[in-house]
Amino acid sequence: MSRSGRPGREVRCGLCGHRFDPSALACHAECPLGAHCTLICCPNCGYQVVDAGRTFLGRLLARLLRTRPEPAPGPVRLREPGEPRETIPLSHVLPGREVEIVSLRDLPGPRASRLAAFGIVPGSRVEVLQRRPTPVIRVGETEIALGPEVLERIQVTPPEPKRDRATA
Fold first, then answer.
1. Could you read off the pLDDT of 76-93 as tens digits, one per residue?
2. Which of 18-22, 63-67, 145-149 has the lowest mean pLDDT?
């Protein structure tokens, strides 16, 4: 059933599609819970669904998930020289995208040295080949499988949106 309603609001049954006013129902006359019952019963087919607006958790979630107006996008601001670049973890890059490594965050010395031996250093460009089942990246002509926890610590510049050849 779509949205449960306050008095005067119409609801639609999710099973049969019948529209009705849940406040006008007398289906809870024999219910031992009476006014505390949180079910809405379709008078046409008898299908029952929880009235999320009458449950504590439903009200709490409705309050938390209420949509808030988003601010209008402002003018595009260029980055000043010396200002830190916007970065994302390498684990967030989709397969097929090429990005530039900005930093290796919180990697122990031996692991950072091993990655540097493969060419994974700030300033180098890498391509993500796959994310599942094991993340694989390409640096130059070398393909390397890395764990997700390592990819989470490699900060890269966000990739440019991929354009279709027909639109480019």
1. 566 666 666 688 899 888
2. 63-67
Pairing of β 154-156 and β 98-104: antiparallel
Give the chain's largest Cα–Cα span. 76
Domains of the chain by start residue, with CATH: 11-64 (no CATH), 88-156 (2.30.30.90)
Predicted TM-score (pTM) of this structure? 0.47
Average pLDDT over residues 67-80: 61
Distance, CA of 120 to CA of 113 (rounded, Å): 9
